[in-house]
Amino acid sequence: MARDPLVGTTLAGYALLDRVGEGGTATVYRATHPTFGECAVKVLRERLRQDKTAVARFLREASYGTRVQHQNVVRTLETGQSAEGLHFLAIEWAPGEILEGYAKRHAPIPADEVSAIILQIADAVYAAHSSGIVHRDLKPENLMYDPATRIVKLLDFGIATSTDATADDRLTRAGFFVGTLMYVAPEALSGEVVTPAADQYSLATIAYLLLTGALPYTAKTPREMFTQLLSQPPIALNKAKPGVQFSPAVEQAVMRGLGKAPTDRFADVLAFAKALELSLADGGKAEDGGGFMSRMKGLFRGKN
Fold first, then answer.
1. Which residue in the list 112, 123, 137, 156 is annotated as catalytic?
2. CB-based contact 238:245 (threshold 8 Å)
3. Residue 1 pLDDT > 60, yes or no?
4. Pair 155, 121: CB distance under 8 Å
5. Is the pLDDT at 171 greater than 50, yes or no?
6. pLDDT (average), residues 207-213
7. What is the pTM of this model?
8. pLDDT at 301 over 60
9. Cis ω before 108 (30° cut-off from 0)
10. Is 137 a catalytic residue?
11. Domains, the chain
């Protein structure tokens, strides 16, 4: 691999130590700064400097990161353009590892750990919803997890949208969906504007993965996945993997979060996370430990 020309240089006061990640639009570096200390710096790819839509998305991500102030969302430190014309976004350095890799190595993950992870993500996403932001790309790859402390941090608002955005502001053509197919809600596939319920679907998919080590659909190609999402129900949680079984309450909570229609799901993402937490009490066993089932009935009573 060719050496990254930015590694070892200083960008707008940030000493770029090494490259730690990259996507279609930006590269992420571990950096240090005289004021902020260790941090991460996202740099828009040079070839996109003149792409007005790419620049607008990059700046929008920075603005959303500033709007959502929460302990489980990485803090936005600074955004700007260097003297060389490179757009950058500096965020706090979150210790740990990407949740996707952790899940691949350790799932099925113990029930109490899953509860802790999902509750933190839900709280962060609910804070975004309360600020009028729908994430649209919630997935393990966009989450940093520190197993030692069990702290989760939401990393990325790259394709998030505002609930009050106008058609011109959405930066997405009608008829095209945004997101990651394995985690995207069915209603997003039409390219229509999605609601916070779409993030709940994505979070339920993450919970399904952490609990079983599998995903709700078994498609082998994007086309097949697209078809299954639109026409088939997800695989029931207790059929995801042989020998991995949960109480009916756990399965009911996860599968409701994966409801095909937004109205089939919980009232909000926190209601889903709290229902899952209750159902996973005592490791997700079916036994009722003094009022557990009555509390679950209260959460499940009625649809949105």
1. 137
2. yes
3. no
4. no
5. no
6. 98
7. 0.86
8. no
9. yes
10. yes
11. 10-92 (3.30.200.20), 97-300 (1.10.510.10)
